[in-house]
Specification:
The complex is a heterodimer of chains A (about 325) and B (about 280). Chain A has helices at about 1-30, 35-40, 45-55, 60-75, 85-120, 125-140, 145-155, 180-215, 220-225, 230-255, 255-270, 275-285, 285-315, 315-320. Chain A is mainly α and about 325 residues long. The radius of gyration of chain A is 24 Å and the shape is globular. The two termini of chain A are about 15 Å apart. Chain B has about 280 residues and is an all-alpha fold. Chain B has helices at about 1-5, 10-25, 25-30, 40-45, 70-105, 110-125, 125-135, 140-150, 155-165, 170-180, 185-190, 195-220, 230-240, 245-275; strands at about 50, 60. Chain B starts with a helix and ends in a 7-residue tail after the last helix. At the A-B interface, helix 1, helix 6, helix 7, helix 8 and helix 11 of A face helix 6, helix 7, helix 12, helix 13 and helix 14 of B.
């Protein structure tokens, strides 16, 4: 188990290092001179050269890369070109908002998706078809469009919920401790959360349905049925439990899709998270922020996968004992 | 094939894609023919669906804030969506086939490289990767195709690698090698054609994803630029008029959902038809 964890940790670290490298060299392809952009069109050649030297941009690419990685590892991620603030604080302020939104949506969409998928696997054909149509439609919904539609109904027509104006989770003091602050946060969270959850439910339910059906075809299910167990017991104790393993793995693997969805949902609702910062940074060609945001998402994804792997090992004794899931 | 014809999901998927393709091709015939034209903006803007404006032009889906006909923009936008999505998928299938076949056939370095690259690409959400690449150049339809093609090949490569790996050990391949054919010829003529099955499924699903991502990028202003209509930038322009003209953002969104549903259902149906051992029905 420990060896398994160690291998996974190493692999995760290698992936993050790879993303770091890829990001650095991709951004080198960007057109234009970053120093010219920084100093503006009025800068003299001497000023440009001085700034280039000050930033270390006149050194060989390999040296620049090594310096950048060293700084990155120490937590010095440079300054945002657009706002001049340190990138660490730009993204650090935004991370909690994304974690709250994406975390809650992940739990809700998988909870709902699991229930729907289990129901479908055991339901008769007509119910199954109806639910399949519903889940494939949810799966196809672009988050930004669904967000706009929900905004139209709940904000502009019904005047129930605010669409924008959420401040940072940690701004304003005691956001989640005093009652009024919490209520306000929840009202602002409602629409982005509903959007991201609905977009995720379809994929989760489709996958759970498939996993359940795979397990239903196994001989041990027939045995359980032949023993005279009730369909509910068979579903709960024998089928759902075994279908949990691929579902937990998928939970980890669905993080990229979730974060992708969060990018659009945050942009639509002006939710102050990493996704919105990333979109703003791309629109402003603010490369230090774009690079750091890419690495942050990669770290989130890798840790999510690691966590899912551990959970799967906890559920599945075969993985725990190092024999590997069949 | 007959299995596919009896599958209602496949029939729906193909029907939708054919209708949308035909609408895109016949766009000048079934619309006003001028998606970007503006006449008397004040007199023609914000016409609700199914109304005739003061100049006597009928608008089945209404007009936007510049008085442009939403239906016309929708069918011209279909061209953009299908061409960008289609070419992007072809590009990613081509890259995926090449990388997957190389990694499946020649073990060692190509395989290690492929695995490393797919692991990397899977660790970064595709939207983040797409945004990173989109930040490197000026937004255009060509850039969107390139970016989507370059970020969509990994699943194809993995599937192909697996198939090629198992095919390479089969007797007919050994026979071809024994006849003295070159490695490249064995790979291209005997192995790859037999490994295409999972690629077809992947391409159908990938088309839906590519169309959705193109719309997403255009929605954020990083894809197809106005006044060229794309479903994504139509939704973006309708965003500001949700209150007084909700149809502007609603129509392209519905079109998008229908096309993506069609691609997904077609992919599911193909999966079942091509892989009869799978139990899902």
């Amino acid at each position: 188990m420990l060896a398994h964890l160690g291998r996974r940790l190493l692999a995760g670290a290698a992936v993050v290092a790879g993303v770091l490298t890829l990001t650095f060299f991709l951004v080198q392809l960007a057109p234009g001179d970053p120093v010219e952009r920084l100093l503006g069109p009025t800068a003299t050649p001497a000023q440009l050269a001085a700034q280039r030297h000050a930033l270390g941009l006149d050194r060989p690419l390999a040296v620049q890369f090594a310096t950048w990685v060293g700084r990155f590892a120490r937590g010095d991620w440079g300054r945002s070109i657009a706002s001049g603030r340190p990138v660490v604080s730009v993204l650090g302020d935004a991370l909690p908002a994304t974690l709250v939104l994406a975390g809650l949506s992940l739990v809700a969409s998988y909870g709902l998706g699991f229930l729907i998928g289990v129901w479908q696997a055991r339901a008769d054909r007509r119910v199954d078809t109806a639910l399949s149509i519903a889940t494939v439609t949810l799966f196809a919904l672009p988050g930004y469009w669904l967000g706009l539609m929900l905004m139209m109904v709940f904000t502009y027509w019904a005047h129930w919920l605010p669409a924008f104006g959420a401040t940072g989770i940690d701004v304003g003091g005691g956001a989640f401790t005093d009652g009024a602050g919490l209520a306000d946060r929840l009202r602002h969270l409602a629409l982005p959360f509903a959007t991201l959850t609905l977009v995720g439910v379809g994929g989760a339910a489709r996958f759970v349905r498939g996993a359940m059906r795979d397990v239903l075809g196994q001989p041990f299910v027939t045995t359980a049925e032949a023993k005279g167990l009730s369909p509910f017991q068979v579903t709960r104790r024998h089928v759902a439990r075994n279908a949990m393993i691929p579902v937990i793995i998928l939970l980890g693997m669905s993080l990229p899709a979730l974060l992708s969805g969060a990018v659009f949902v945050e942009a639509v609702f002006a939710w102050p998270g990493v996704g919105r910062r990333l979109v703003e940074a791309v629109q402003a060609r603010d490369y230090p922020v774009v690079m750091a945001a890419t690495v942050v998402t990669a770290v989130l994804v890798v840790s999510g996968n690691l966590l899912a792997d551990l959970c799967a090992a906890w559920v599945d004794p075969r993985v725990r004992q190092g024999k590997g899931a069949t | 094939m007959s299995r596919l014809r009896r599958d209602r999901r496949a029939v729906f998927g193909v029907a939708v894609l054919v209708i949308v393709c035909m609408a895109g091709v016949a766009a000048p015939l079934i619309s006003t023919g001028a998606p970007a034209s503006q006449h008397d903006v004040v007199a023609t803007r914000f016409q609700p669906p199914l109304t005739t404006d003061r100049t006597g032009v009928f608008h089945p889906l209404g007009t936007d804030r510049f008085g442009r006909d939403v239906w016309t923009r929708l069918v011209y936008g279909a061209r953009v969506s299908l061409v960008v999505g289609g070419v992007a998928v072809m590009l990613s299938v081509a890259i995926g086939l090449a990388v997957g076949a190389a990694a499946g056939y020649w073990r060692g370095t190509p395989r290690l490289l492929l695995l490393a690259m797919t692991d990397l690409a899977i660790a970064v959400p595709r939207v983040v990767l797409v945004l990173l690449l989109a930040a490197l150049a000026r937004p255009s339809a060509g850039l969107v195709i390139l970016v989507l093609g370059l970020t969509g090949w990994m699943s194809v490569a993995r599937l192909v690698q697996g198939e090629v790996g198992s095919l390479a050990a089969r007797p007919f391949v050994e026979g071809a090698v024994a006849l003295g054919l070159s490695q490249a010829r064995v790979l291209a003529r005997h192995i790859v054609p037999n490994a295409l099955t999972p690629v077809i499924v992947s391409a159908a699903l990938g088309l839906g994803q590519a169309i959705m991502l193109e719309a997403g990028l255009s929605f954020l202003g990083l894809g197809v630029q106005p006044p060229t209509p794309s479903w994504g930038n139509m939704i973006a322009s309708g965003r500001d008029t949700l209150v007084n003209a909700p149809w502007v953002a609603t129509a392209p969104g519905i079109a998008l959902v229908i096309v993506v549903v069609a691609c997904t259902l077609l992919g599911d149906a193909l999966q079942d038809a091509l892989n009869p051992t799978a139990r899902s029905s």
